[in-house]
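note to self: dont lose this again. the chain is below, predicted strucutre after it. 350 aa total, dont forget to put it in the shared folder this time
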Amino acid sequence: MDILILGTGAIGSYLGAELAREKHRVVFLERPRRVQALREKGITVTGKAGAFTLSHPHVVGSLPEAFRQGPFDVALFTLKSYHTAEMTSKLKSFQDQVPPILCLQNGVGNQKILEKALGEMKVVAGTVTSSVFRHGPGEITVRKERGTGIGAGHPLSRPLSAAFQNAGLKPRLYEQPRDMKWTKLLTNMMGNASCAILDMPPGDIYAHWDLYRLEIKQLREALAVMSSRERHPVKLPGIPSKLLAWVIGSWPIPLSHPFLSQAIKRGRGGKMPSLHLDLHRGKEKNEVEVLNGAVVRAGEEAGIPTPVNTYFYQTLSDLVHGRLPLGTFAQQPGRFIKEYRQSAGLQRSI
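---
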């Protein structure tokens, strides 16, 4: 296949290198200032099976240059969600040259932006559940190799699945792609916004009783919103996400605590989650918009209260945009919980 990678972060570099390794023609779109260095350095992917380097990858620094290398069978959209609107606007200028796009971003809402601009048949839903980290340009470590999800029903769905399978990317096709995307949102929310706000590891969040109760409440709000939209939890590649959703929604909180505490330790390990990384690197945007923010907006549309997600979303947004100092709640779970109770009008335990 002829493949365009939109974004050479951790996921784009990883997928593109693995597909190029299987002799697909892959073109990477990178920021202009990094193009030459990436061409010379290559992309090295390190995982359990060892390391390999894609030498002299085909890297370009602009969309006009990229489309001069076309035509392409597919583009993998792997940019952070806060870059979606800007990149979509640029893609519209090349409407006739844009191939179908596999939308692999976290959260919900990105696909709708792409579909509105380019047409529904130009977009395929996707997700990546493998844990992948970029140490620097072209330096990729696969910490947990789980797999990928691809929405079924598009003419490219099965060819893409076959290409991913041959590249060892462990694909799974989903007849209900929106179930896949909402389930991934649910797993992405676990120990994410709270870690960013409190500057605490996920394991410590889940070990703290009141913080754990708050975590479960935000996830139950998300499940209620999903149900209102007739979105159902599904098993994601390498993640017992359907079981996790059942435990979150059905088990008494004291009973679920040891189970989910172990799950978060296994799933995230010692790695700080994405919302924390972006906040503490000083980025002025954050994917909380398409995670907790998406739950809040969908809850408003459905008339479902989402007080915990609203608190997480507003607090993290205030930290990102400088309306609150970065260290306001750092290592201060008591203060964080007290202010939640005040915001929600609660006088007793969460």
